[in-house]
Design goal:
alpha+beta, 3-stranded antiparallel beta sheet, 10 helices, JMJD6_ArgDemeth/LysHydrox, 2-oxoglutarate-dependent dioxygenase activity
């Protein structure tokens, strides 16, 4: 019975729609005992559609936020917040790069002679770390042993010590230290690899600092970072990027050689040019990587290892 009433009501509504379509006006329609209020029906239908849309968005919103969060925080895609940092970066004063065509190269420099500590670079101090134990003892196997033997070492990277895989298909330091021996040595037919990470596990940091020192020609009142970064691998190096850090940086070339390519920030393209320079084992590079875009590559077949830190 209920179905028949509903069917009959639909048929009457259809007749009324036809009447309106054929020119019956509202006044004439009011002469009838209307069963259907078409305006009400249209509004109800629109309201229902909007309600369904809102409910669908509310249902999907947690999933959308989850996907976006994972996409933005995936180190293999875009390191956290880089797009935001670049969009909000203050415009640079292009005087920092005007007339820069090559790095300043220094030899046997002392603290008294080093007047470039707070300049933007690029500066290369030759043979500055030749006395470091690291130049003789740092290698892949040493770091693998340290991380495998130290409790909580890998977890430290999840607690804020950034891991960078650049263009490598390795997404954690644990994967790096689980590579087959053939790939570790970059043997023919193997994919080259290059990674970096923040070395901030207290025990490991304490041990590796026994192998190197902060450059002794930097100002005595300079403040130094509580962590260092390690970069090592073959061939591909780091992609072009800015460093969103709070202080200046130095990088010591412990093993192998490295080719740096640097470029000014976009707002200075009209007055400044990019350049390349070559860094050899034992050298230290100084560069304000917050305003110089930079990338690196390793000569074919060479293993490169560097230590990098900040000061200010």
């Amino acid at each position: 019975m209920r179905y028949r009433k509903r069917s009959l009501k639909k048929r009457i509504c259809a007749v009324q729609k036809t009447a309106i379509a054929n020119g019956l006006n509202n006044f004439e329609m009011k002469q009838f005992d209307l069963i259907c209020d078409y305006n009400h029906n249209d509004k109800s239908e629109k309201f229902n559609k909007r309600l369904i849309f809102v409910l669908l968005i509310l249902f999907l919103l947690p999933w959308i936020l989850f996907v976006l969060n994972n996409f933005m925080s995936a180190r293999c895609l875009v390191p956290s917040n880089y797009l935001i940092w670049e969009a909000t970066r203050p415009l640079a004063n292009c005087a920092y790069c005007e007339n820069v065509t090559k790095p300043i190269v220094l030899y046997n420099v002392t603290r008294h002679e080093f007047n470039y500590a707070y300049s933007t670079g690029p500066i290369i101090v030759k043979n500055a770390i030749k006395s470091w134990r690291a130049t003789k003892e740092f290698n892949y196997k040493m770091f693998k042993r340290l991380y495998e033997e130290t409790g909580g070492s890998y977890e430290s990277l999840d607690d804020g010590c950034q891991f960078l895989n650049f263009k490598t298909d390795l997404f954690s330091l644990k994967e790096v230290f689980n590579m087959p021996e053939e790939r570790v040595k970059n043997e023919p037919g193997q994919k080259p690899w290059y990674v970096g990470w923040g070395n901030c596990h207290p025990e490991i940091l304490s041990k590796v600092r026994q192998y190197y020192n902060v450059p002794d020609f930097l100002p005595s009142d300079a403040e130094f970072s509580g962590t260092e970064n390690i970069f090592f691998g073959y061939e591909i190096g780091a992609v072009m990027h800015l460093d969103y850090i709070s202080r200046l940086m130095w990088q010591g070339q412990v093993s192998g050689n490295k080719i740096w390519s640097i470029a000014p920030v976009p707002e200075c393209d009209h007055v400044c040019n990019g350049l390349e320079f070559y860094v050899e084992k034992g050298d230290i590079v100084f560069l304000d990587t917050r305003i110089w875009y930079h990338s690196t590559r390793i000569p074919a077949g060479e293993f490169s290892l560097t230590v990098q830190s900040e000061y200010g």
